Amino acid sequence: NARQEFLPWPPSQTSPLAQPPTITKQAPKDYIVDPRDNVVIDCEGKGNPRPTYSWTRNGKFFNVAKDPRVSMRSRSGTLVIDFHYSGRAEDYEGEYQCSARNEHGTALSHKILLRVSKAPLWRKENLEPVLVQEGTSVILRCQPPPGLPIPVIFWMDSLMQPIPQHRRVSQGLNGDLYFSNVVRADAQFDYICNARFLFTHTIQQKNPITLKVLTTRPVTELTPRFMSPTGTSSNIIILRGEDLLLECIASGVPTPYIMWHKKGGELPRDKIRLENFNKTLRIVDVSEENSGEYFCLASNKMGSMRHTITVRVKAAPYWLDQPENLVLSPGEYGSLVCRANGNPKPNIQWLVNGELIEKAPPNPSREISDDTIIFRDAQIGSSAVYQCNASNEHGYLLANAFVSILDVAPRMLSRRNQIVKVIENSRARLDCAYFGSPIPNLRWFKNEQGNNLYGGKYLIHDNGTLELRRARKDDEGTYTCVATNVLGHAQNQVRLEVKDHTRILKAPESIVVKKSRTARFDCRIRHDPTLKLTVTWLKDDKVLSLPWRMKKDEDSLTIVNVSDRDQGTYTCVASTELDSDSARAYLTVLANPPGKSAKLAPGSLSDRPSPPRDLELTDPTDRTVQLTWIPGDDNNSPITEFIVQFEEDRVQPRKWHNLTTFPSTINSAVLDLSPYVNYQFRVIAINEVGASEPSSPSERYQTTGEAPLSNPTNVRGIGASKNSMDIRWTPLNATQVNGPGLKYVVSWKLAETDDEWSTATVTKANYVVSPAPVFTPFEISVQAINDFGAGPEPDIEIGYSGEDCKCRALQSTTTTKATCIYTVSLSQGSVAERSSHRIIKYYSTERGHSAHCATFATTAVCCGCVCGCGVGGRMCVYQPLSSPLPQDPRFKLHKCPSW
């Protein structure tokens, strides 16, 4: 048996017990400091006797006493390097390590690399204007001076206005400014790269760059080409736990869209973020399973190009089993275990008291086996601090664990004769912290009875705490814990008291009071009589100060001479030292009715409600927000419901839509919201007379985005001309967009073939496929995507390319002049029969008049003002853009004109 922790002792019990040192506070491994401040390198520890401290710098002893600028804080090892009067912080850069030692061992801090923050000036340079042809790509280089830490880069103009960034123009991860294609408006003389250095709070500026756009040649459409990274493939190595940033920036006209994929699998949706207009893929907290091949696809109407990035995830060492402090009694068995993983697998190295264990004095009771040290028959005097160092090429871990050999009778560490109070049916924990070596055996008893408490409703934790999961009245009493080992025993007592719940028996009720009258809220409470009760009243969730008009009794709150400002939510809070209960009600203040001398117009005794007011948004989450409002005056006709409306400022700004309705008893509700909508709300009250004016709008609330949850509807393909097909659809509305950068991926292929799908990505609600064979069926689909990802798999529809115009002489015509309806007989192999769409759009006469016609089997029924045209007309088959075949041939009739 071995105790795997060393418990803190009360001061009165600490002095006789030995404790090897431990490090309790240390500076970070990579420690960057501001050169304008004094340098403080933390190192604190504990032990008994109190440890002393020393330092090494770059592997050599650092003599603090000999340097007048360096001092060590009292009772700790923290170094303070003072530069107020002289010296440079750069002179003290290096690798530091702290040692804390007493007569029982030596503990080490990790190695601390001290570096001074640097914010160098930009080197002087004469920048020639950048000349670029309109429509081509260009990169404006930033190349900031090497700072520590790496500066934050941003681009501005000479008026300190940010350079607008979007899909066409954006900043890369390296700070350069990328133009996928240049337009005339990009011509500017003051593109300025700025570097902000965090530690020194300074900003350095590069000389302005002049961009001149040449317009001597027309802009030609170009297929995508990658600007960063170049080529078709690249590699990246990332460490486990870091954020992986993959970037693809492409040139082309029109500006290409970027989409990301992982070869042989899906992107980890819960860990990815699309940034910089889809050009950057961030995977947070990468792990080994995120290794693999990722590719970005840059596409525009001219084509597409793919870049593959091979990602390998390596790992600095990380703990599997960190060694823990070990307290053994003489002759006892124990072990220290140090297991770490990494890529490559880390090397494990043991030290004792800061020295390599191979160079330490031999210890016959100690056996080393790779990542484990085994102690057999440990003896007094062999206490020490062991260090485990796990390292590979990417980093290291250092852990201290002491082994203390003690021979100690049991001792109680918890305060004696505690009283623990709990509410009935709640969890009760009775503490009994103890120590001894060998580890004592602990038992609990109730009311000094001989039965050991174990199992059932009792749970004894390793630290000695007795837990009752649901304390009842009959569990009250005095509990005794007894710790025993071969050297003796110790005991302590804890008194458990079980109290009644605090409950509000009669809660306040919402009331409506006229101005200047009296309002009263009741709040009747039951509580445990042995506990002190405190009753607090809140108004609108804030503690209510009690002016002279308000009086708080034991079970009520009275408000006299009520005014408009008293309207709101009142909460009664009843609390004791152990629990509390609360209840709330709403006070509505009505305006006084007109005086007797006032003349009321007929029918004016009731009116539409006054508009709600004081809209407030609280408790925001990604997809909900709580809206609270104060109802207006009902104007003598009770309010029956509230309508909550919303407005968004992206797709249909200043247009209000109904969101939901609530009954008149509700004035606060949680609203379910759609992703990526910048909401603004207002409320309308309804009574039997009508609707109120809308309330003043609330503040705006922006929900977070996600990939679209739906695709466009009413997808259809229709003939724009004889060699093309116009694919159209109903676009997503404002609450369906779900994120920035909404686009539509249009796909098409010949129906019932194994052809590859062709795709195009557009922002408008149609796409023309050209060229296309005459009147041919296509399989088509439209999928919505945004900067967060793609929508669901789209449904496949059938569309047709356009027909050729086939004309022939009419074979026979019958005319009914009264109705203007024409019936045309269609012979076998006629144009209408060869047209599978079977709609004749125009019926043209030699006089230039036309009629709408529809085919039914072998007859075409035509209607239009062509009365008396005779048989000299010609018929053309033409597919309409939108009009479907009518259900019957009853067209709108026209009177014949005078010819």
From TrEMBL:
Transmembrane regions: none
Range of residues in the leader sequence: none
Domain of life where this protein originates: Eukaryota
Domain Fibronectin type-III: 611-707, 711-804
Region annotation (Disordered) ranges: 1-21, 597-619, 692-716
GO cellular component: axon; plasma membrane
Similarity-based family: Belongs to the immunoglobulin superfamily. L1/neurofascin/NgCAM family.
Family matches, as PANTHER family: NEUROFASCIN, PROTEIN SIDEKICK
Name of this chain's protein: Neurofascin homolog (chicken) a
Lineage: Eukaryota, Metazoa, Chordata, Craniata, Vertebrata
